[in-house]
TrEMBL record:
Gene3D superfamilies: 3.40.630.30
Name used for this protein in its record: Acetyltransferase (GNAT) domain-containing protein
Alphabetized SUPFAM superfamilies for the sequence: Acyl-CoA N-acyltransferases (Nat)
Lineage, uppermost ranks: Bacteria, Pseudomonadati, Bacteroidota, Chitinophagia, Chitinophagales
Domain of life of the native organism: Bacteria
């Protein structure tokens, strides 16, 4: 397979997005729109005229170009409409390592041990197939989740779709950004993407509202032809006591039950988040964090 290295300006947007959309590994994160907002200046490896593509989230510091996982981008890696053989995986990843001496990225490829990386972690994602009807989906809920949902209904919460993107983004930033160390400019990029995608249903807002009219939990969800992505949510202290976040996701599942979509929880290895996700009965899929550092001293110490 012939692999070409391309700068962003030289990428055929239509060919790229068509391949990503039809690929086995298809994710919204690999579209040109997403990459342009969260990894400006990204580059790519393209094999055999878009038979296989690999976005490269390039950053630059102290004159050194390296790879770093963009914000709100769970995973990248190789994308192809056909299964990617280990030989092709190896060829792409060796090409990446030859070009970049430092990388901290999350990819969809389970690399072998002989790639000589400094760190390799298996990470969990949780996905729920929404094709069954709601009763079948709810039957898989954990007992504790069913109890929380009963409590939420007793608290007279309502499910609404009138909220604005800005309100969710600002609420999520206020509640979560300091702990996660995410700069507001990345939330602004979410708003920009949402403004582009929302008119055609590519993203939407859902809210849980208390009986007094207060928004106690909200979420900004993105959607492509295969998945609904739970990108950001915000639940107030009052909402936590009312079990509003459990209610919000349950109502979202009720809304889309019987569809051909997957609900992508953007799963986590954090015990609390994983416990919440798995209480809805999803499947677990894996992606992989990889780090290598082949920089020469003294540059090697700029990233430890």
């Amino acid at each position: 397979m012939q692999i070409r290295f391309l700068n962003r300006k030289d990428i055929d947007v239509n060919k790229w997005n068509d391949l990503v959309a039809s690929s086995i590994q298809s994710r919204i994160y690999a579209t040109t729109l997403w990459l342009d907002h969260f990894s400006p200046g990204w580059k790519a490896l393209i094999g055999d005229d878009h038979r296989v593509v690999m976005p490269l989230p390039v950053k630059k510091k102290y004159g050194i170009r390296y790879l770093a996982q963009p914000r709100f981008t769970q995973q990248l890696g190789l994308f192809s409409a056909q299964p990617v053989t280990p030989a092709i995986e190896k060829k792409f990843l060796e090409e990446v390592q030859n070009r970049y001496a430092f990388a901290e990225i999350s990819i969809n490829t389970d690399i072998e041990e002989d790639y000589n990386v400094n760190k390799f972690l298996i990470r969990n994602n949780h996905i729920l197939d929404l094709s069954p009807g709601y009763p079948q989906l709810a039957a898989r809920y954990a007992k504790s989740l069913r109890q929380h949902i009963v409590k939420a209904h007793r608290n007279e919460l309502s499910y609404q779709s009138r909220g604005s993107v800005a309100s969710v983004v600002n609420a999520s930033y206020d509640l979560n950004a300091a702990k996660a160390r995410v700069h507001y400019r990345y939330y602004q990029q979410l708003q920009k993407i949402a403004k582009i995608l929302q008119p055609d249903g590519g993203c939407f807002v859902r809210e849980a509202v208390a009986s007094n009219g207060a928004i106690v939990s909200s979420g900004l969800f993105f959607r492509d032809r295969y998945r609904i992505y739970k990108i950001i949510t915000a639940t107030s202290p009052l909402g936590r006591s009312l079990k509003a976040h459990h209610f919000l996701i349950d109502e979202l599942i009720r809304e889309y039950a019987g569809s051909t979509l997957l609900l992508d929880f953007e799963g986590s290895n954090l015990p609390g988040v994983a416990s919440f996700n798995t209480s809805f009965g999803p499947q677990t899929e894996h992606y992989y964090f990889v780090k290598w550092n082949r920089l020469k001293w003294p540059y090697k110490i700029f990233k430890k």
